Amino acid sequence: xxxxxxxxxxxxxxxxxxxxxxxxxxxxxxxxxxxxxxxxxxxxxxxxxxxxxxxxxxxxxxxxxxxxxxxxxxxxxxxxxxxxxxxxxxxxxxxxxxxxxxxxxxxxxxxxxxxxxxxxxxxxxxxxxxxxxxxxxxxxxxxxxxxxxxxxxxxxxxxxxxxxxxxxxxxxxxxxxxxx
Length: 180
Known about the structure:
By secondary structure, the protein is α+β, with helices and mostly antiparallel strands. Helix content is 60%, strand content 16%. It has 4 helices and 6 strands; from the N terminus they run H-H-H-H-E-E-E-E-E-E. It has helices spanning 3-30, 34-74, 78-96, 103-122; strands spanning 125-127, 140-146, 156-161, 164-166, 169-172, 174-179. A 3-stranded antiparallel sheet has the order 1-4-5.
């Protein structure tokens, strides 16, 4: 311990002892005074109320901080998931082509696609369902509209690009064609 640190400790100790002496003299001086006791009780009540409010504020702060931490942890993978969705789209386009590619090559691509979708699913990424659903602007992005016989207005006719959710948050809405 340095001399400076020792001096600081000594100064704090002296200040503390001075405060204790002042407190004792204050108590002795005001012990017999009934009015002072009432004032002290009021001050004590006020101090207790302040303490209770401060404790409640601290508790609320802790809860809010914990909730924020949980949200950060839950959605930390959102950015990487969005980037991987472009890879998923490329796989889906490759799988939808009807060329005479080698069957084993196509099977390999399908296997990689399934693995990628499994990994994304493990992190809470799920495709948004559009098949036979009613258009919902919270989940879907209408890029085309068309009249369709035998179909109610506002129904999704075709999915043009899959949408995805991370847990309960939409990270990319589905691009769809809607009936009018």
